[in-house]
Write a structure and sequence with these properties.
The complex is a heterodimer of chains A (about 325) and B (about 250).
Chain A lengths: L1 H15 L7 H24 L8 H19 L3 H23 L5 H20 L1 H4 L5 E2 L7 E3 L3 E3 L4 H24 L1 H11 L1 H6 L4 H27 L1 E2 L6 H14 L5 H16 L7 H15 L3 H21 L1
Antiparallel strand pairs in A: 1-4, 2-3
Helix pairs in contact in A: 2-7, 2-10, 2-11, 2-12, 3-4, 3-5, 3-10, 4-10, 7-10, 8-10, 11-12, 11-14, 12-14
Chain B lengths: L1 E10 L2 E11 L4 E5 L6 H9 L6 E6 L2 E2 L5 H7 L1 E3 L12 H8 L8 H5 L3 H20 L15 H14 L4 E5 L7 H16 L3 E5 L3 H7 L2 E6 L2 E6 L1 H6 L1 H8 L6
Parallel strand pairs in B: 3-8, 3-9, 6-7, 7-8
Antiparallel strand pairs in B: 1-2, 1-4, 4-5, 9-10
Helix pairs in contact in B: 3-5, 3-6, 5-6
Classes of the chains: A mainly alpha (about 325), B alpha/beta (about 250).
Chain lengths: ~325, ~250
């Protein structure tokens, strides 16, 4: 219940927030934050099955290029192109997932890193299709949504993208939450704990892992596609290895155990570098320090910090009342 | 019910299981014994598909299941327990069993993720069934306890309950009594007897000889991957090969 109220409150805040922002820069920061929240939460869905994927960057690249090329080469509507990009990425994840998921733990992660790097190399080398290392630019923005008399969303201003990103984020989080709270999430958590037992009682563990992987990557593909239309340019290494590592850091810092963890982590760690912009040069060091500090002192992440604080406050109240 | 023909598994030059023929009849409890390292667990792994046999066939209810994945073997009705890792440690007892009901829930992927009323009703049925199984296994006072905080004996019993939730036709128990104290042993033996009364077929690996002798209809003895004896408990106990395998061949033996 508190969860529902909190998320409703935050949603309302986010709807009205742009009206209080002083310039497009802050809107941009929030759009990126919302993208990162989707990415981190979808990465967590994969990690529910105990597998840490580092293929998100590669999957985003595939999504971004697919959508951009569908629009620019085939003249498809941006809306369809983005959806197709997401589905295509899910298909790629499904096909690569079956061989990858035979590996466990760190071995799986390593293979996904290689996959990501392969995607970057292919987009760099396949010049006739992707334009090579120069990337592609002038990617059109989504088509305008016009309801005569009511509103006219033409994606000329950043605010429109803000609301689009907000819609994407809320829809993604609702879907991810529904999956996690369903029997599928339950099965994935079981697989994470003892996958030999899960297999022996008749759960197709590889199948469920691939399902999680494919669903998680679907969102990465959508976000990648969104990004390419938002920035209107795309380079092969925009979502390189370090981008993926950042997502992983957001997830770990936020806390992997609860649904709110990645949201919190992505929010704090995307906003933090913007606030401390003076220290931009040192950001990787600060990130590393935050990560190490969290691993040592807050094994449950920032989300764990919150629940600990709440428990602490309750304890104080109880002592005062006693 | 279960028929094994010429089953072999070589790890390099080592014959872990070598040319085993065995038939388990419906409704019986069949013991598989042998000294440590004889290949008993490897044999289980071959039947339920954790590893593929080098040679030989496994036939269950007339169907060839050789080399099938564990989850498809489970679907056919063969459920096994392990010597360790029989539980989902972070789940409560009821969650353990209701997850293990997986094959019988009838809840589809889309139905589940959309949280349809139908799936909610089925979910409720699963919980009821899980509770029945927990009661049958004698764990009802621990229903909402985290599996990790159970005693060793209760963890092992929960492992059996998890296997039961998958509604096996053939239950393969890998050392169900391992590491238990006397009281837990008799509790578990009673549970196994109840399962037999329900008509379940059981294939049992166990080192506790007294329990094996008293429970089993027939016993199969292997050593170094080869069959050395088969028969009812009394016959097996007198078999010189078996005595040699267990006690070693002394000079006067």
């Amino acid at each position: 219940m508190t969860y529902l109220l909190t998320s409703l409150f935050l949603t309302v805040c986010l709807i009205f927030l742009p009206h209080f922002m002083s310039g497009p820069y802050y809107v941009h920061v929030f759009i990126i934050t919302m993208m990162n929240i989707i990415l981190t939460s979808s990465l967590r869905l994969i990690s529910l099955s105990g597998q840490i994927s580092l293929a998100h960057g590669g999957m985003m690249t595939i999504g971004a290029y697919t959508s951009a090329l569908l629009v620019m080469r085939l003249g498809l509507s941006t809306w369809y192109a983005m959806l197709i990009a997401g589905l295509f990425v899910a298909l790629v994840a499904c096909l690569t997932g079956f061989p990858f998921m035979r590996l466990k733990g760190i071995y799986f992660s390593i293979v996904t890193v290689f996959f990501s790097e392969m995607v970057v190399l292919i987009t760099q080398q396949w010049e006739s299709l992707t334009g090579g290392s120069g990337g592609i630019y002038n990617i059109p923005a989504p088509g305008a949504i016009v309801v005569t008399g009511l509103f006219n969303i033409d994606f000329l201003s950043k605010i429109h993208f803000y609301y689009f990103a907000l819609f994407l984020m809320i829809a993604s989080l609702l879907i991810l939450y529904a999956i996690e709270k369903s029997r599928i999430g339950f099965i994935l958590k079981g697989i994470k704990q003892t996958d030999s037992l899960a297999e022996s009682i008749g759960i197709n563990t590889i199948g469920f892992k691939v399902l999680a992987y494919s669903t998680g990557c679907f969102f990465a593909g959508i976000v990648g596609a969104f990004y390419s239309h938002y920035i209107s340019a795309m380079c092969p290494d925009t979502f390189g290895f370090f981008y993926t590592i950042n997502i992983l850091v957001y997830m770990t810092v936020g806390g992997i155990e609860v649904f709110a963890g990645p949201i919190l982590g992505a929010f704090v760690l995307t906003i933090l570098p913007e606030i401390t912009r003076v220290l931009k040069e040192f950001m990787p060091f600060i990130f590393a320090a935050v990560l190490i500090a969290v691993i040592f002192f807050l094994p449950e992440g920032l989300a764990g910090l919150f629940s600990r604080l709440i428990a602490f406050i309750k304890k104080i109240i109880r002592i005062k009342n006693a | 019910m279960l028929e094994v023909k010429g089953l072999s598994k070589f790890f390099g030059g080592l014959e872990a299981v070598s040319n085993i023929d065995m038939t388990v009849k419906a409704g019986e409890i069949f013991g598989l014994i042998g000294p440590n390292g004889a290949g008993k667990t490897t044999f289980f792994n071959l039947i339920n598909g954790v590893i593929r046999p080098t040679r030989g066939r496994v036939i269950f209810e007339g169907q060839d299941i050789t080399g099938k994945k564990p989850h498809s073997v489970a679907k056919k009705g063969i459920i096994r327990t392990f010597q360790a890792n029989n539980i989902f440690p972070d789940f409560t007892v009821i969650e353990n069993v209701s997850l293990s009901c997986h094959l019988k829930t009838g809840i589809g992927i889309f139905e589940a993720s959309l949280h349809t009323p139908g799936s909610k009703k089925k979910e409720k049925d699963v919980l009821e069934r899980s509770y029945e199984i927990i009661k049958h296994a004698g764990l009802e006072s621990f229903t909402n306890t985290a599996a990790n905080s159970l005693s060793h004996g209760h963890k092992r019993i929960l492992g059996i309950a998890n296997a039961l939730a998958a509604e096996p036709k053939l239950l393969m128990l890998d050392e169900p009594l391992g590491g238990m104290n006397a009281e837990e042993v008799s509790e578990t033996i009673n549970l196994i007897r109840r399962l037999l009364d329900d008509g379940l077929t059981i294939l049992l690996i166990e080192h506790n000889m007294r329990a094996t002798m008293s429970l089993c209809d027939r016993i199969f003895v292997i050593n170094f991957g080869k069959k050395i004896a088969e028969g009812n408990p009394a016959e097996v106990k007198e078999n010189p090969e078996v005595i040699k395998a267990y006690l070693g061949a002394g000079q006067n033996a």
